[in-house]
Amino acid sequence: MSVLFPRESEPVLRYFHNDGLLMRHDKHAFAEEAIKAAAIGKIVGDYERILFFSGYAGILSPEVDDIKNIIDPFTGSFVSSLSHNLAYLRLALKAAEFFATKDEESEYKGFALVETGTRRLRACIREVSMGDGNGLKERYGREQKARGLYYDILDKIENALKEGDQFAIELRERANKLVLNARVITGKNS
């Protein structure tokens, strides 16, 4: 969201999407049990994202739905003008789903979700609201400043490369190695 309304006239990258290009994490290959154990935390994390993304959208515009429309369908799904209600409603409905199954494991998950969810959402609401509500705005300002610093560094490296700077050339070579060793997997069955 920090690049929705750039101050400079140059375009900035918000996200990249192309049909068939999927983001893949190989964590299932080596961490199946850890993923199962963290399932409740992941569910609650989605509810926290509702609070944070909605808070950030509120910083950008009093009309949160306008921001939501710009960033849909990706992070827009986490933006709501009724974020507190939505987060707690989703928590309650998911817990009810676990309890309705009526087996011991699901019941345990229901209790774990309620305990973890209420604790983390309360803390998240405090963080988003911080006193006079400016805490998140200050954080957003720091993130925007960091983004600007990142692009300034890229500009300096680009200029240094044009000048044949050895350090910049070494950085480019190291970055190229990282990119060459990265895997991009496309397709529906990935």
Report Rg: 21 Å
Q: How many individual domains? A: 2
The major sheet is characterized as:
none
For the residues shown, what is the average pLDDT? Answer: 82
Please, could you describe this protein's structure?
With 190 residues, the chain is mainly alpha-helical. The protein folds into 2 domains: 25-132, no CATH class; 134-190. Helices cover 70% and strands 0% of the residues. The chain contains 8 helices and no strands. It has helices at 27-30, 32-37, 39-60, 64-71, 83-101, 104-133, 135-162, 166-181. Helix 3 crosses helix 4 (64-71), helix 3 runs antiparallel to helix 5 (83-101) and helix 5 packs antiparallel against helix 6 (104-133). The longest helix has 30 residues, at 104-133. It is extended and about 70 Å long. The model has no long low-confidence stretch (mean pLDDT 82).
Write the layout of secondary structure elements.
Layout: H1 27-30, H2 32-37, H3 39-60, H4 64-71, H5 83-101, H6 104-133, H7 135-162, H8 166-181
Keywords:
70% helix; 2 domains; 190 residues; extended; single chain; mainly alpha; 8 helices
Offer a concise description of the structure.
The protein is an all-alpha fold.
